[in-house]
Amino acid sequence: MEEKGGIPLIASIHSIRLVKGFAILALMAALVACGGKAGGKKESVHLKDAPSKVAAVYQSRCLNCHGNDLQGRVGANTNLQQVGSRMSFEEIAAQIEQGKGLMPGFADSLSQNEIDGLSEWLATKQ
Ligand code: HEC
Q: Where are its TM segments located (predicted)?
């Protein structure tokens, strides 16, 4: 009886590992891409208006999947360039806290201030 219950748990641990592994791979790819050309700095149109603290959080926690210009790197739903026209501040904050689909929730790893800062900034992207 207990054995049956164990299978979905193992499967979900496995998929969490896959997501983490993917994020690490994406980060490494980003680092390699950035390190490649010293002079070829790409201007990020969509990131430059972010308050510096918000930009720092975005770069360390969101950029892997959402890209250095909010363009999205893991599918159409990850393009955030106009997310403010689809989602309110509250909806964005809820998604950052709880996650959705392949996106992990950040309620435990980001402060309320950080989540609010990200949400406020993203809500202006229309
Ligand atoms: C592991 C990859 C990953 C990371 C890291 C990640 N996201 Fe996402 N995010 C996704 C995916 C995948 C979706 C699409 C989810 C869906 O609708 O199925 C998404 C969707 C979103 C959406 C909703 C977009 C829409 O139009 O529906 C917002 C807002 C968002 N992410 C913000 C963030 C923020 C802010 C961070 C950093 C704190 C972050 N994400 C980190 C993968 C990620």
A: none
Q: Token digits for 17?
A: 């590992």
Q: Which atom of ligand 1 is nearest to the CA of 100?
A: 15
Q: 20 in helix, strand or coil?
A: helix
Q: pLDDT tens, position by position, for the chain (126 residues)?
A: 555 555 666 656 566 565 666 666 665 666 555 444 444 456 788 899 999 999 999 999 999 999 999 999 999 899 999 999 999 999 999 999 999 999 999 999 999 999 999 999 999 999
- Domain assignment of residue 103, given as a range: 44-126
Q: Is the CB of 96 under 6 A from ligand 1?
A: yes
Give the burial class of 88: count Cβ atoms within 10 A of its Cβ; 0-12 exposed, 13-18 middle, 19 or more buried: exposed
Does residue 53 share a domain with residue 102? yes
- Tell me if 62 CB under 6 Å of ligand 1: yes
- The number of folded domains in the chain is 2
Residue 32 sits in the same domain as residue 48: no
Task: Tell me the three state secondary structure of residue 102.
Answer: coil
C-beta of 42 in contact with ligand 1 (< 6 A): no
Identify whether residues 79 and 95 lie together within a single domain.
yes
